[in-house]
Amino acid sequence: MERTLVLVKPDAMERNLGGAILDRLERAGLKIVALRTLKVDEALARNHYAVHVEKPFFKDLLAYITSYPIIAAVFEGPNAVEVARKTMGATNPEKADKGTIRKDFGLDLQRNAVHGSDSPANAEIEINLYFTKKDFISR
Ligand code: IDP
Ligand code: MG
Predict the structure, then answer these.
(1) Can you tell me the distance from the alpha carbon of 49 to that of 98, in angstroms, rounded to the nearest whole number?
(2) Distance (Å) from CA 55 to ligand 2 centroid
């Protein structure tokens, strides 16, 4: 069993797409095992996107991700990281496959509706930025 961190990003939250996006991931066979809403502050944004600190879009990305409340969710299932990334589609909504979350809901390369961890190792690191052990219900 694998876990991945999903964020419903500000652009999607502003358009009331939180439920629709979580629904797509549940329909893909993944289970919600932790869930919260929050407004990301600058410190959390810098941690979450630390790998992009040298990118030209970094400052814009921080402003965007802190601009409006988001949903953070942990999804679990076999190959959760890959299943979630496939359900989301390519980073650029214009290039994302038909039927993916980003194709259907993303606005542009930055405002692409959703985040998903890109590896099991990064998923573990990212989950720990948003959740503690107490947030997970034992079944
Ligand atoms: P990912 O979210 O598909 O993993 P990354 O390359 O890790 O894509 O980029 C993180 C986020 O930064 C993207 O989801 C998007 O919101 C934003 N982003 C990526 N590339 C650009 C760009 O060239 N211009 C503006 N924003 C970008
Ligand atoms: Mg990434």
Answers:
(1) 27
(2) 12
